[in-house]
Amino acid sequence: MLVIPAIDLQGGEAVRLYKGDYKQKTVYSSHPEELAKKFEDMGAKYLHVVDLDGAKDAKASNKDTIKKMREAISIPMELGGGIRDKETVDFYLNEVGIDRVILGTIALQNPEFVASCIQEYGPERIVVGVDIRDGYVSTSGWLETSQVYYLDFIDELEKIGVKTIVCTDISKDGTLTGPSFPVYKNIAQHSKIQFVVSGGVKDDEDVYHVSELGYYACIVGKAYYEGRIHLEEVIKNVG
Prior knowledge:
CATH superfamily: Aldolase class I
Number of helices: 11
EC number: 5.3.1.16
Organism: Sharpea porci
CATH class: Alpha Beta
Keywords: Amino-acid biosynthesis, Cytoplasm, Histidine biosynthesis, Isomerase
Subcellular location: Cytoplasm
Protein name: 1-(5-phosphoribosyl)-5-[(5-phosphoribosylamino)methylideneamino] imidazole-4-carboxamide isomerase
Number of strands: 12
Order of helices and strands: EEEHEHHEHEHHEEEHEHEHEHH
Number of domains: 1
Shape: globular
Structural class: alpha/beta
Strand content: 25-35%
Helix content: 25-40%
Distance between the termini: 6 Å
CATH architecture: Alpha-Beta Barrel
Radius of gyration: 16 Å
């Protein structure tokens, strides 16, 4: 299983939000590229990056910081947040060298766009973020909630060729109360899609539990920044 450290960017800094609330943030580093290198040195085999400004404003707001991070490390990087047009997809995949982009809002609004990106780049480089609030898909940096039930959305994604999703229960994100295991159990029973567990991971045991369940990957964010997880050890133990 992949243990994927997360760096959320706002105004060029590494921050964490509480339940996706832009007013409740903690700044952890003014040099995200150094943080990225630290994660690589700990043995991480993948890095998860979110442009929070982009998610809210649909602009590549932190592109210079993201370029610096890409140049600082050699491990693969996935990036989400505000990637809603072909120009931005091309920019990050071709010019910056991001390994895979995570499409969110646009996947709900325009699934044909996602299908065309998969056709061009392949399902390994086009991932969809399924962000859930009370069972329904949330968009626009988690500021809006749709009327689309998450399992129905996953069905539609599979039909257009999506192979991997990053699935976050917003009510858990940044809370350190453990992942929404019932949500992931539902997905595993309902679908063959490969998913990344995201939101709520609080300690080593949570990561080991995700690994025992045989899931593809798990994102670690606040638990690391708050000193609640032995990240290097966990990465070594589960892959």
